[in-house]
Design brief:
With 107 residues, this protein is of the alpha+beta class. It has helices at residues 4-15, 23-31, 46-59, 69-76, 89-103, and strands at residues 19-21, 37-40, 63-65, 83-86. This is Ribosomal protein L7Ae/L30e/S12e/Gadd45.
Length: 107
């Protein structure tokens, strides 16, 4: 797996009830301003990417493009998921740090 820390933190977020997944739920929570980070799979459609990137920028919510639909889904115990919203500020920061570590080769 690409970055075990990132994926295990997603799993922890899910168990803690601090995560919403799927286009509909993430869209709804973004509109309610209850999302602190959006994770988009690298293999989401161009339309999905554009929609959420625009929404995040408009709402000043950070987003990252990370992992695949399959690996994200596996981390949270679902079939396939391309969009995840983190509803806890602390967990959002930890996930951003974990993603940065992976991208810059840090441990």
């Amino acid at each position: 797996m690409k970055n075990d820390r990132f994926h295990s933190m997603l799993g922890i977020s899910k168990k803690a009830g601090k995560l919403v997944s799927g286009n509909y739920s993430v869209d709804k929570y973004l509109k309610l301003k209850k999302v602190f980070l959006v994770v988009l799979a690298t293999d989401v459609s161009k339309n999905t990417f554009k929609k959420f990137a625009t929404m995040c920028e408009r709402n000043k919510v950070p987003y990252i493009v990370y992992s695949t639909k399959e690996l994200l889904a596996k981390a949270i115990g679902r079939e396939i998921v391309g969009v995840i919203g983190i509803t806890d500020e602390g967990l959002a920061k930890v996930l951003l740090d974990a993603a940065k570590e992976e991208n810059y080769g840090g441990e």
